[in-house]
């Protein structure tokens, strides 16, 4: 009887070890729906290609800086999502539910996003001296504000009497358009606020 129990325990240990080893060997690619291409990044590059060869004007610079802020906001949002998923994925790897390759892919995505943020800082410095030191902080504050507004809207919707009625869900494309419109509005407010600050400073120096 003791030998039977011993063999069962040994078999289970070997099975668990093999399962973990097999999972670690599997190459798991990141789902494109999980980390899709950042639309704001592509939009910014398209605008740079459109206005890059033209003479620099105040209007062109305003368009490009606004697009860069939106790109920074979207990239920061991507980084937050990665950092949010990382602890739970670490736990899944420790439990042997998923392979270590998936965690490696997530780490690569995090590293790639960090490089994108550094590129944004370099781009910001081309438009304005010293902007590289503040653009990420400004964009993070804007993104946090948008998420806070979205969370408040969801809470108020749940607490309202009309929340008992099922509301139509937005499609992924409609949700993306809504978020982009919100980001556009906040970015415009940021640029307008910066222009007001510049004007007030110039008046004080005169």
Automatic annotation (TrEMBL):
Gene Ontology terms: biological process: post-translational protein targeting to membrane, translocation
GO-annotated cellular components: Sec62/Sec63 complex
UniProt-listed InterPro entries: Sec66 (IPR018624)
Region of interest called Disordered, as start-end residue ranges on this chain: 147-206
Pfam families assigned: Sec66
Regions of compositional bias (Low complexity) in chain numbering: 147-157
Keyword Coiled coil found: yes
Comp. bias regions, Basic and acidic residues: 171-190
The entry's keywords: Coiled coil
Ranges in coiled-coil conformation: 103-130
Domain of life per record: Eukaryota
UniProt protein name: Uncharacterized protein
Organism annotation: Anaeromyces robustus
